Amino acid sequence: MSNRTLKLNSCCANILPLKKRKEKKENLSRDKGSSRSRLLNGIMAEEPVNVNGFRELARQTLPKMYYDFFTGGAEDQYTLKENEEAFHRITIQPKILVDMSSIDLSTMVLGYSISMPVMIAPTSRHKLANPSGDIATARAASTCNTIMVLSISSTCTLEEVAACCNAVRFFQLCVYKRRDITAKLVLRAENNGYKAIVLTGDSPRHGRREADIKNKIIIQELKNVEGLLSTKIVTDKGSNLDALANQTRDPSFTWEDIGWLKSITKLPILIKGVLTHEDALKALEVGAAGIIVSNHGGRQLDYCPPTISVLEEVVHAVGGKVPVFLDGGVRRGTDIFKAMALGAQAVLVGRPVLYGLAAKGENGVRRVLEMLKEELELTMALSGCSNVKEITRSHVRTKHDRQLLSLL
């Protein structure tokens, strides 16, 4: 073989036929595309290590209009911000040299055992976050053995959510002007295995959420009232949320009307939206089975107090007669611990669940719940509490406590 032939063969050994080169290029292109897809799906991206990490993923994933809808509050958003900031002003007082070889987070809520003192708060329009909507959220709650409170404004029907998995669920209720529609919703919840009614008491009118007004957000059809109530509201203000709520909900519903609600259901009724000693006593008077200290996530009345700041006032008013729960601003296991030390039997989380749902669907919701559980377990271990009943008032100091101590 000539030197020229050897050189030619040597060169050709590193050259693929045109067809092969084309196939290789296509494979590389597919690999790059799938890598980009995995990155967009959050698999190759840095995994969130806390709720705020999921919030950032949700921001990157959602259209701005939907992200603003989930994260926004009323007017100046003072209450929205204070719900979180108020937790930061409470310190934890750990007990040391306590046996922490076993830690039990299990909690009883209205006689039902759940894996941790964390439930899912009622939040609307989950399909804006993920196509599977409330069903994905419900399945994650079931996997984590906790309670989901389904919103009356869910984007899946209460029947669809009930059928998707076995779990304890509550149903959140706003009272409509047409009481017959309200009664039908309560009956449907009872017939489909929901274990309690959560009555929202802080929404005679719709809060002024300026981001939604600017974005001109239009509501999706409300699945639970399909065929019962028209939700096609025409408005010249861009967003139709305010007009819809004000046209359909009953602003005249009062404490005296809770007797009517109790007469149409055997389910226990929790009252959501209590922020004062006086309203806590009224809730007891009308026979509430529980109280949820809530300011609607800062989405209704701006400049009302952050929930953690009034929790103890409500707990003292109730005097142990019914359980007290809290929502608003819970983003860490330490927040859950602080709420329980101030008397809450459990907390409810809303926005963190929506962040998880937007970022990673059902798995995202599950991971958010797991994170909060893991953080709470660690907080309990480092604070000397082997079960939730051992979390007491002596484990925290509020700003007021510190002011009193400074006078000694």
From TrEMBL:
It is found in: Peroxisome. It holds the Pfam family FMN_dh. Keywords: Flavoprotein, FMN, Oxidoreductase, Peroxisome. PROSITE patterns: FMN_HYDROXY_ACID_DH_1 (PS00557), FMN_HYDROXY_ACID_DH_2 (PS51349). The active site is at 296 (proton acceptor). FMN binds at residues 151, 172, 200, 272, 294, 327-331, 350-351. SUPFAM superfamilies: FMN-linked oxidoreductases. InterPro entries: Aldolase_TIM, Alpha-hydoxy_acid_DH_FMN, FMN-dep_DH, FMN_HAD, FMN_hydac_DH_AS. Its EC number is 1.1.3.15. GO terms for biological process: defense response to bacterium; hydrogen peroxide biosynthetic process. The keyword Transport does not apply. PANTHER family: (S)-2-HYDROXY-ACID OXIDASE (PTHR10578:SF116), S -2-HYDROXY-ACID OXIDASE-RELATED (PTHR10578). This is (S)-2-hydroxy-acid oxidase. It comes from Gossypium mustelinum.
